[in-house]
Amino acid sequence: QINILIVYSVQSFFNSSRSNQTLFSALNEEKVVLFLHLLGIDTNGHAHRPNSREYKENIKKVDEGVKEIASMIDNFYGNDGKTAFILTSDHGMTDWGTHGAGHPSETLTPLIVWGAGVNYPQKVASQKFEDNFLKEWKLENLKRLDVNQADVAPLMASLIGVPFPLNSVGTLPLEYLNNSAHFKAESMFTNAVQIVEQFKVKMSQKKETTLSFLFTPFKPLSESEQINYLKKARLYIQQQKYNEAISLCKTLINLALEGLSYYHTYDRLFLGLSIAMSFVGWTTYVILVIIKTHTDLTKAVQTNNKESTVLFYGFAFVGMIIAFFLLIQACPWTYYIYCLLPVPVWYAVVKELPVIQDLATNLLSLNVVQSVGFIFICTLGIEILVFSFFYRSALTLGLFVFAGWPVITQLWVQAKTNASIWTLLCMLLAIFPLMPVVGREPNIPLVIATGLLTLMISCFSLACLFKNKKYRNNEDLKVYFYQMLSIALSTYVVSSTHDSLKNKQGLPVLNQVISWMTLVSSSVLPLLSPTFLFQRLLSILLSLMSTYLLLSTGYEALFPLVLSGLMFVWINMEQEALQHYGLSLKPKLAVFNFTCATDITQFRQLHLDDVRRSYFFVFFIVTAFFGTGNIASVNSFDPASVYCFLTVFSPFMMGSLLLLKVVIPFVLVSCAFEAIQVTTQLSSKSLLLLVLVISDIMALHFFFLVKDYGSWLDIGTSISHYVLVMSLTIFMMLMNGLAQLLTTHRFQLPRRTKHHS
After folding, report:
1. C-alpha to C-alpha distance for 432 and 628, rounded to whole angstroms
2. What pLDDT is stored for residue 391 in this prediction?
3. Which is more confidently placed, 637 or 137?
4. What angle do CA 199, 204, 206 make, to 5 degrees?
5. Better-predicted residue by pLDDT, 501 or 95
6. How far apart are CA 702 and CA 608, in angstroms?
7. Is the pLDDT assigned to residue 79 strictly greater than 80?
8. CA distance 695 to 726
9. What is its EC number (predicted)?
10. pTM for this structure?
């Protein structure tokens, strides 16, 4: 229907020009470009996937539509043979209906050119390419000419006889042109001049904003070299040595493009070092604040006002010198932020010099081997987190190490049951990062099985939690009954919707209503449950699982269930760890109430084991990020995940639902850590500071890994990783606030009053 509409629109457009003199005159001018965007294939591919029958039928309709439109254009211009046609695409698509990564199916696009000024296909005996497209299309005997997408712009400009676009970095693909050798040589010479002019402008801009004695030009293409290349190319053309001229111009273009990249990244090292200094200074300062206010490692030291004043003026003088240096170079305002930020940060660090000296004295008294071992373990742990952003299997390695934690720390001796379950669940969770990214192979029976398994676990858990009549309440049981009913309905909706869509019957209205009602109720029902620790956490799990099932298409449905099981055991293991290190008495978790959380005056000072506890939290958050996919790339998500809610293509609504799916595992981890925080008397402020140190060290890694070249996925993912880690602390604060809301607040429903005669 879309393609029929496009053909009709094009026909109407040309017909309307018959009665519109202005439009008719514009269409009959020289060098006219008609642009037609055929969006139907992209939408169809996302909805039905490229290997579907619907997509292949759509391709046929588009092919017929292109033929009709080309015929219309030729007829309008009286078949004068002066029209050139270019058919191409901006991207490809994977077999599961996404794009944005670096796979050939996404980055290789067709380019078909025919008409006026275009060369005829050239026959060849054989040609070698890494892919099998020529064989699949039965075009092995026709020469294939691959170009970069940027080369299409100069090709279009050459075909209609207009100057190359000012900021184009494409190279004219001469093989596509049906013209004389002289024309091709002149065109390539013009292409070289156009790109060299860009290089010269970029060089002059950088020269104007850099002190002369500091400026380092791009040596392979100095001004004399530019003149020599252009003179030599012009001489070749005059001598009718066109091939030599073309070859020389291509060399000049490549050098100019290298020079453009050189000047574009000219200040990268300078700015990178400034930002790195800010990172190191800020991380050092946060560590000093933690040690000073949340540990007993240092003593209170009186500050010398005279020394502080001298220090302040010294750093202020350094800041003025940097600002003056930037001012005389006419640098952008952003440079002032990057270069001046290290000054106040390092002033704050140096101001704590007595604390540093006191800390150094204490550290020197410690065992050197233990200190080096602790630093090595911390470094290794952070590197595993960094690697997990690129290789999900690194999470598997980390979870295997976690599985052995009770054995390494001797916790196995005092809590064999909990330690065994912890090890088992760590091993189960370690399987998920090894699985393929969700969405590629849907498995609805597994989602249904997960729903049934959740119901069985919830029945067993309720039986255990409410076996004591003292904590049993009929109103509370009703809440859990509604949540279990919601799980059952979600399981039914997933199965029913999948069958309906498979039979091309669309999304049933009843299923859609149930899905949205489940989504709304899942945020309210936990607040009606008791605030006893395990009862409230079970209620949160059941509510979130009902929504997560509706958003699942395969094995990922099991992920929050296994993760939650591990979180429940983690809460118990942390109590065993506290008792093991003698930090506090072991409270009875079964009767612990979130509303009676630890008072602020009872918060204890940080212990070395709290660094491990904070690292566990960050690791589980990262596992929630990458356990079933890569949230840094939209390429990881399958639109089929939201089909229980809507099937009409709506990017914002679909994106919101997919974001909710991503957030649910975070909420489960955050609620579990909220329980650990209050039961271990750990200050949330000290926790966030420890997380801040970990995230800053990771962010420094990702800052130097940011890319500005490669596929969309390479560039976008590198930036996304950096932004994700930078915002990790803010995200933790939001999750901490949400966890407090979900665990401590309770809505009391009005109850009927019983009257007795």
Report:
1. 6
2. 84
3. 137
4. 95
5. 501
6. 27
7. yes
8. 7
9. 2.-.-.-
10. 0.76
The DSSP output letter for 532 is B
Q: How far apart are CA 85 and CA 115, in angstroms?
A: 6
**The two three-digit tokens of residue 754, written as one number:** 């019983």
The one-letter code for the residue type at 66 is V
Percent of the chain whose predicted confidence (pLDDT) is above 90: 30
Residue 389 contacts residue 723 (beta carbons within 8 Å): no
- CA 627 to CA 637: how far, in whole Å? 13
Q: What is the pLDDT of residues 320-334, one digit of tens each?
A: 999 998 888 888 888
Detail the DSSP E strand segments found in 221-360.
Answer: none
CB 185 within 8 A of CB 245: yes
DSSP 492: H
At 177, phi and psi to the nearest 5? -90, 135
pLDDT in tens, 539-551: 999 999 999 999 9
Dist. CA 143–CA 123, nearest whole Å: 6
C-alpha 700/C-alpha 725 separation (Å) is 9
Residue with tokens 């077999």: 95
> How many CA atoms lie less than 13 Å away from 73 in the CB half-sphere?
21
Q: Rounded CA gap, 37 and 42, in Å?
A: 11
- With beta carbons less than 8 A apart as the criterion, state whether 700 and 294 touch: no
How would you class 605 by CB atoms within 10 Å of its CB: exposed for 0-12, middle for 13-18, buried for 19 or more? middle
- Two structure tokens written together for 422: 């912890």
Q: Quick check: 540 and 526 in contact, CB under 8 A?
A: yes
| 341, 664, 686, 729 from 614: Cα distances, Å | 28, 20, 10, 12
Can you tell me the distance from the alpha carbon of 622 to that of 625, in angstroms, rounded to the nearest whole number?
Answer: 5
Answer whether residue 468 shows pLDDT above 70. Answer: no
DSSP state of 512: H
CA dihedral 112, 114, 118, 123 (to 10 degrees): 70
Give backbone dihedrals phi and psi of 553, rounded to 5 degrees, phi first: -130, -5
**Residue 102 in 3-state DSSP?**
coil
What are residue 120's phi and psi, to 5 degrees? -80, 155
User: Distance between alpha carbon 603 and the CA centroid of its chain, in Å?
Assistant: 37
Closest CA to 109 of 48, 150, 160, 49: 150
pLDDT tens-digit series, residues 474-521: 677 888 889 899 999 999 999 999 888 888 888 889 989 999 999 999
Residue 407 has pLDDT above 90, yes or no: no
Looking only at the bridges linking them, the beta strands covering 111-115 and 84-88 are antiparallel
Tokens representing residue 109 in the block: 């696009």
Burial (CB count <10 Å: 0-12, 13-18, 19+), residue 306 = exposed
What is the Cα Rg of the chain in Å?
A: 33
* CA dist 36 → 13, 66, 76 (Å): 12, 10, 16
**Structural contact between residues 606 and 372, judged by C-beta atoms closer than 8 angstroms:** no
Complete DSSP assignment for 372-424: HHHHHHHHHHHHHHHHHTT-THHHHHHHHHHHTHHHHTTHHHH-HHHHHHHHH
Which DSSP string do the residues of 20-83 spell out, in sequence order? -HHHHHHHTSSS--------HHHHHHHHH-TTSHHHHHHHHHHHHHHHHHHHHHHHHTTT-S--
Cα 362 from chain centroid (whole Å): 42
- Is 677 within 8 Å of 743 (Cβ atoms)? no
Query: Which pair of structure tokens corresponds to residue 188?
Result: 């390539």
Q: How far is CA 698 from CA 282, 376, 524, 663, 688, in A?
A: 13, 15, 36, 21, 15
Tens-digit pLDDT profile for residues 223-249: 899 999 999 999 999 999 999 999 999
Cβ neighbours, 10 Å, residue 684: 18
The more confident residue out of 449 and 747 is 449
